[in-house]
């Protein structure tokens, strides 16, 4: 779990409630480098959303650029760049 990523997502993520809760759940699973293994079934259980909603949310997070697929269910969290290239802490 990466407290830094979790806090950054809490502070910077903009989206509907299902998306934000899911982004926080994903950040909770991520390592400090932002790599995370996340399946729709695990996300649905953790965020307490329907499996279909979890599939839709994962795709939206990829489309928005929050997640970059690596391989299979592995993703890289991509937080927005800020002036100076730093993510707010």
Question: Overview of this structure, please?
Answer:
- The protein has 89 residues and is an alpha+beta fold.
- It has one domain (3-80): Winged helix-like DNA-binding domain superfamily/Winged helix DNA-binding domain (Arc Repressor Mutant, subunit A), CATH 1.10.10.
- The longest helix has 13 residues, at 17-29.
- Strands 1-3-2 form a three-stranded antiparallel beta sheet.
- Helix 3 packs across helix 4.
- The model is unreliable at 82-89 (pLDDT under 50).
- The chain is built from four helices and three strands.
- Helix content is 49%, strand content 13%.
- It is globular.
Question: What would the keywords be for this entry?
Answer:
alpha+beta, Arc Repressor Mutant, subunit A, 3-stranded antiparallel beta sheet, 4 helices, 49% helix, disordered C terminus
Write the layout of secondary structure elements.
Layout: H1 3-12, H2 17-29, E1 35-37, H3 40-47, H4 51-63, E2 67-71, E3 74-77
Antiparallel strand pairs: 1-3, 2-3
Helix pairs in contact: 1-2, 2-3, 2-4, 3-4
Main sheet characteristics: 3 strands, antiparallel
**Name of the CATH superfamily:** Winged helix-like DNA-binding domain superfamily/Winged helix DNA-binding domain
| Class of secondary structure makeup | alpha+beta
Which blocks of ≥5 consecutive residues have pLDDT under 50?
82-89
Helix amount: 40-55%
Count of the separate structural domains: 1
